[in-house]
């Protein structure tokens, strides 16, 4: 199956603030019709990247292209993009209808065309019955819908979403995630979303770019990013993980042996990108849900460690166990809640995982 053409391209883009690089040599390709997320901690440069695409910031070096055209001298209002801000940026003195129609009126569309487009946008976001209300008469979720409708009414090629659900409570946030996915599927537009919420990026995106200190650490599908992080930063930032630092002590055709700084031996199944140089420093990542617990010593020769249970956190569908291993290292273990009794704290316990359920990452 042929790949879709590119809607947005960044080529070796730099942006400096007070001589410090906020965006540091970023290369990015976003395909037509893709839901692409830019994910990273606060201050990593992700919003600056979005503003460079929108035209609110100008690159100090490199190129920004939209649909193959350089945006070097193209002002924001002439770019085929529209931005949905976290703050919604609605006009409080205008009602829902007039907020959505505002951009079309600026562009001097005919009244009949404006009416048709606004009706269509209201229907898309299920806000037809609230067309006469003002922003202060709407809930946060309703305001977010209006902001989306205002962006979509201009029929942009690319919709830019800057932390679009950040101001909503958890339940509403989940509902709006579903709405965003439905809109994206129905419209077939390119969505580029900036977020610091890992779960949101994993659940919504076709692909994700993980940003750290102005640089891209990794680009991939949600499963690639989660299951096969290429750096310790990505492993630690995406979801929860347990990290063990050590050195490669032995290598064969199927696995590698790592001696940790705390005296444990961990065996990792060898994969295509697994580092294999003897004495090389690596980090072993083990996701909490990959670890099994047993009150009795399991019949295993590798990756089985004795410890004691120090904490139990009930999470409803799951239970999070904190286990302190004999070397003093604490690990998190996540297991489904099967409505069984929980062991008492200080209970001796064994933690183990399969060789294929851990990953060695270059440090």
Q: What can you tell me about this protein's structure?
A:
The structure is a single chain. Helix 2 (96-106) packs across helix 3, helix 2 (96-106) runs parallel beside helix 4 (140-152) and helix 3 (111-124) packs across helix 4 (140-152). With 363 residues, the chain is of the alpha+beta class. It folds into two domains: 6-231, Rossmann fold; 240-362, RNA polymerase II/Efflux pump adaptor protein, barrel-sandwich hybrid domain (OB fold (Dihydrolipoamide Acetyltransferase, E2P)), CATH 2.40.50.100. It has helices at 46-54, 96-106, 111-124, 140-152, 170-187, 198-204, 222-227, 232-237, and strands at residues 6-17, 20-31, 35-39, 61-66, 69-70, 81-84, 158-162, 190-195, 207-212, 215-220, 242-251, 255-260, 265-269, 281-286, 292-294, 304-314, 318-325, 330-336, 348-352, 359-362. It is globular. Helices cover 23% and strands 36% of the residues. It has a six-stranded mixed sheet, sandwiched between helices. The protein has a five-stranded antiparallel sheet with strand order 13-12-11-14-20.
The total count of strands amounts to 20
So, the CATH homologous superfamily of the largest domain? Answer: P-loop containing nucleotide triphosphate hydrolases
State the CATH architecture of the largest domain.
3-Layer(aba) Sandwich
The percentage of residues in β strands lies in 35-45%
- Measured distance between first and last alpha carbons: 36 Å
CATH class of the largest domain, named Alpha Beta
- Helical stretch count? 8
Strand order of the largest sheet: 6-7-8-3-9-10
Return the domain count: 2
- What is the gyration radius calculated from CA atoms? 25 Å
The biggest sheet, with number of strands, parallel, antiparallel or mixed sense and barrel status, is: 6 strands, mixed
Instruction: List low-confidence stretches.
Output: none
SSE class: alpha+beta
If you consult CATH, what is the topology of the largest domain? Answer: Rossmann fold
Helix content: 10-25%
What is the N-to-C succession of helices and strands?
Answer: EEEHEEEHHHEHEHEEHHEEEEEEEEEE
- What's the overall average pLDDT, rounded? 90
Q: Please state the overall shape, judged from the principal axes of the Cα atoms.
A: globular
């Amino acid at each position: 199956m042929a790949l879709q053409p590119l809607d947005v391209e960044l080529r070796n883009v730099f942006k400096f603030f007070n001589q410090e690089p906020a965006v540091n040599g970023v290369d990015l390709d976003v395909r037509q019709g893709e839901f692409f997320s830019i994910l990273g901690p606060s201050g990593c440069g992700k919003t600056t990247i979005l503003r460079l695409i929108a035209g609110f910031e100008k690159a100090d070096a490199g190129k920004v292209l939209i649909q193959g055209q350089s945006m070097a001298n193209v002002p924001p209002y002439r770019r085929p993009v529209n931005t949905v801000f976290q703050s919604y940026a609605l006009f409080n003195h205008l009602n829902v209808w007039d907020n959505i129609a505002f951009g079309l009126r600026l562009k001097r569309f005919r009244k009949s065309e404006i009416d048709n487009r606004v009706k269509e946008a209201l229907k898309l976001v299920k806000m037809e019955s609230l067309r006469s209300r003002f922003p202060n008469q709407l809930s946060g979720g309703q305001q977010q819908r209006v902001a989306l409708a205002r962006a979509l009414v201009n029929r942009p090629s690319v919709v830019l979403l800057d932390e679009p659900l950040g101001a909503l409570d958890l339940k509403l946030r989940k509902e709006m995630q579903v709405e965003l996915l439905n809109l994206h599927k129905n419209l077939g537009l390119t969505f580029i979303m900036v977020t610091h919420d890992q779960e949101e990026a994993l659940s919504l995106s076709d692909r994700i770019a993980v940003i750290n200190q102005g640089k891209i650490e990794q680009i991939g599908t949600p499963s690639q990013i989660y299951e096969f992080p290429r750096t310790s930063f990505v492993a630690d930032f995406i979801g929860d993980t347990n990290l063990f630092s050590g050195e490669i002590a032995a290598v064969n055709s199927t696995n590698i042996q790592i001696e940790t700084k705390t005296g444990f031996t961990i065996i990792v199944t060898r994969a295509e990108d697994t580092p294999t140089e003897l004495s090389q420093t690596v980090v072993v990542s083990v996701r909490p849900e990959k670890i099994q617990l047993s009150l009795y010593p399991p019949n295993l020769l590798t990756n089985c460690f004795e410890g004691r249970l120090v904490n139990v956190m009930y999470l409803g569908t799951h239970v999070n166990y904190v286990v302190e291993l004999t070397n003093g290292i604490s690990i998190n273990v996540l297991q489904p809640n099967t409505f069984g009794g929980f062991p008492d704290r200080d209970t001796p316990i064994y933690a183990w995982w399969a060789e294929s359920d851990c990953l060695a990452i270059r440090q």
